[in-house]
C-alpha cells in the first residue's frame, strides 16, 4: 500500500475532552438558535444548519493549526466558529447586522476569517479554490496545508476531478474532505452516485474513510492526513461519514425523503456529543454536574449573542457599495462606483 493509515488507538486527556465537548455543544446550541430565529423570520435567505455534524469540525480543528487553511461550502456556521469567530459575530451575520463577521453583508453562506475562506454558495466551486490555496502554501514553502471540504452532493461535480488531477500532478498539500451526510438536497447518496465510496473516487489519490460522528476518529485521521501532506506526498482524500439532523436548508423539512425513525436512530445511537459525553463519564474524566455547568454557560453565551444579533442595527444604505474592492477601484468598471448611474452595456 502507498501508506499505512491512522493509528488504531487514540488518547484523550480530560482537558481535550472538555474542550471538544464545549466546541460541539456550542455549535449545536448556536444552530438550534438559528433554526428558531429563521422560523421567526429574523434570519432571512439561505440557511444550512450543521447540527449532527459537529464532530467533523471539532475533530479537524483539533488536528491542524490555526495558521493552516480551511475552505468549505455553505454549511459553514460550525467552521466559522472553530476558525475563531465569536458566536456574537456569527449570529449577527446570520441576522444581517453591522456587528456580523462580514458586516452583515454575507449572511449564512458567506462568512470569512483569517485562514478561513468561507462558506461558498456555488456547489463544489470551493474545491478548486482550496487547491489554489494549497498551491500558495507550496509556493510560499510555509509547510501549511489547506483543508478543502465538500459534501456528497458536490462529489459528482466535474470541477472536483479537475482539481484532484492538478493537486496530484503538482503534489499539493491539500486534504480533500467529503463530508458525507448521506443526502444531497433531498437525494440519498445511492440515488445520486454510481459509487458511494467517496474516499476512493480520487482514483490516483489515496483516501481514507472515517467515522465522522466520532470526534477522536476525525482528529486522528486528520492528523495523519496533515502529516501526509506536510511530508510532501501530495494530496489525500478523507470521507467523513456523518449525518445532518435538519433538512438540507430551511425550506427542506428533511423528512420527505427519509423517515423520522432514521433520524431518531442516529440521534440515539451515534450522536457526536452524547458519545463523547458517555465516554468521558464512563472513564471518570468528568462529572455530570460539570458538563451541566458547561451546558448552562454555553446557553447563556448563545442567548447573549442572540440578544445582540436582534438589537444590533443593520448596515446603513450608504455602505452598500463599499467593500467591493480592498481599496480604491483600480479601473473604471460599471457598477462599482457608489451610486454611479448604471449605463447600459448595449
TrEMBL record:
It comes from Takifugu rubripes (Japanese pufferfish). Gene3D superfamilies: 3.40.50.970. Its cofactor is thiamine diphosphate. This is Pyruvate dehydrogenase E1 component subunit alpha. CDD domains: TPP_E1_PDC_ADC_BCADC. Keywords: Carbohydrate metabolism, Glucose metabolism, Oxidoreductase, Pyruvate, Thiamine pyrophosphate, Transit peptide. The gene is LOC101068389. Residues 24-317 form the Dehydrogenase E1 component domain. GO terms for molecular function: pyruvate dehydrogenase (acetyl-transferring) activity. The pyruvate dehydrogenase complex catalyzes the overall conversion of pyruvate to acetyl-CoA and CO(2), and thereby links the glycolytic pathway to the tricarboxylic cycle.
